[in-house]
Amino acid sequence: MPDEVFDQVLSGVVDGELAPGEALPSERRLAEVLGVSRPAVREALQRMAQTRLLDVRHGGATTVRDFRRHAGLDLLPRLLVRGGTLVPDVARSILEARLAVGPAVAALAAERGGPTLAAALTETLDALAATDDDVERQLHALAFWDQVVDAADSMVFRLMFNSLRAAYEPALDALAPLMAAEVGQVDAYRLLTSALGSGDPETARAAADRVLRPATTQLLSALERLEEAP
Amino acid sequence: MPDEVFDQVLSGVVDGELAPGEALPSERRLAEVLGVSRPAVREALQRMAQTRLLDVRHGGATTVRDFRRHAGLDLLPRLLVRGGTLVPDVARSILEARLAVGPAVAALAAERGGPTLAAALTETLDALAATDDDVERQLHALAFWDQVVDAADSMVFRLMFNSLRAAYEPALDALAPLMAAEVGQVDAYRLLTSALGSGDPETARAAADRVLRPATTQLLSALERLEEAP
DNA sequence: GGGGACAACTGGTCTGACCTCTTGACCTCT
DNA sequence: AGAGGTCAAGAGGTCAGACCAGTTGTCCCC
Known about the structure:
Two copies of one chain form a homodimer.
Chain A: H1 2-14, H2 27-34, H3 38-50, E1 54-55, E2 63-64, H4 67-70, H5 76-80, E3 81-82, E4 85-86, H6 88-112, H7 115-129, H8 134-152, H9 155-168, H10 172-184, H11 186-198, H12 201-228
Antiparallel strand pairs in A: 1-2, 3-4
Helix pairs in contact in A: 1-3, 2-3, 6-8, 6-11, 6-12, 7-8, 7-11, 8-9, 8-10, 10-12, 11-12
Chain A binds a DNA duplex through helix 3.
């Protein structure tokens, strides 16, 4: 029950029906209107407040905050799909971020990975190469990057990766065909693996770029066409 | 009251007292042990579940998840300070991420900013140059990057920035002296501004690097010394 | 020994009451 | 008439207790 209330209020906020600064009805009133108990709406509002989408003050009114200014990366999944369909603008920004961050992570991983990293990655790649299923390949690629992020030994990049994966995984089935080209380039991945094993950050950065860029530019132009003629 | 429970459970999880996979006591028992009502612990656990730190199943036990694998970037503030002091490892990763992402954002902003961007940034820089207070300068620098991120027109980078700022702002007073060197380089910021106005992404990327790198390398070596001899 | 029913958990939800704090209107004093 | 304080209405915060709805493990019967 609280989940439904949370969803409704969240939709109101991200869709702009509830403008920043606007005051929400009182918890009791909301409970009455939505036909649920007050604890249910209270829990929903508290969760909204935790994600910095609402400002709830004891004794005063609960007001809407500007999510564009305060929301964290964990909101991404809710912004990526709106009304059941992908939002091209947000998808584009994910691709851009991936292309910017991936090589940087690879560079750090090359510095810190050690010899065991390449071995583990090779194993993952072998599993990837062994299947023809797009979704399964996608999962192996995800595991590959998971290991790279681990090797980079960076809490921030680790949390970023988790947040991005949380946005990606729910739509994995739909996205797998689009990403099939990238994940099919096993050669590029093998080059990246040996670059990571070599310990040279710049080589690894370039190799990661070579893995990510083709699909990125391809999908970006696809998104552009989509935005022009939906 | 729920906040305190949330804090306690969260501390247990991030400090490792509650291992991943471990089952929590039932809500009723927790309420009894902690001396609070069940709604209070329920709200706390639900908020933990929302941040993917717990797995709560109807009818079954509530178990601890591996936050390193599932937590999002919004957890960063809680990981940056542990027991009242900065965690060097996490601080290092923030600096690294900043150095990697900042120039990428600047490149996008240069492509999309338009002529109004440089004018707005110049105004912010004038305000920065006009004050001698470290904290105030820090806030102006934050506003500067806020405008750059806006110009980059990327939802992912916007949310990343929000999350990083949420980790940074609470410790701003303590961090301002450390960052004073960077924020004092008004010339480098002015160069970045004109690069952003020129519309050339690579020039902007290089200029952003020149702004961020000096303080980054300086602080990184300071952190290294700190970790060797705490 | 295997399979199904039941009982003892778990979390999920609601009602209704009481507390504390904010807010704004109203009244008083200047 | 305006500035100040007072107070009541209404906001969120918390609790107790009850009941619903799933899961799980045991125990009994076949």
